[in-house]
Amino acid sequence: MELLCGLELCVPLDKSSFLFPCLLPHLSPCIELLDEGFLNISDVSAVRGHRFRESSGFIPPGLFLGLVARLFQRLAPGTMEPTRMWKDCAVLFLNNKSTRVLLRCDLDESIIDVVAMAPSSEQIFVGAAKGQASIVIWIVHLIKMFLRNYSQLKFDEAWLCTNPECHASRDGRYSYQGSEFPLLSRATSKKSKAHDCDTEGCQRFLGVGHSLDSMQLNCHEPCTTCGKSQVFRLRE
Question: DSSP letters of 83-105?
Answer without folding.
Answer: GGB-SSEEEEEETTTTEEEEEEE
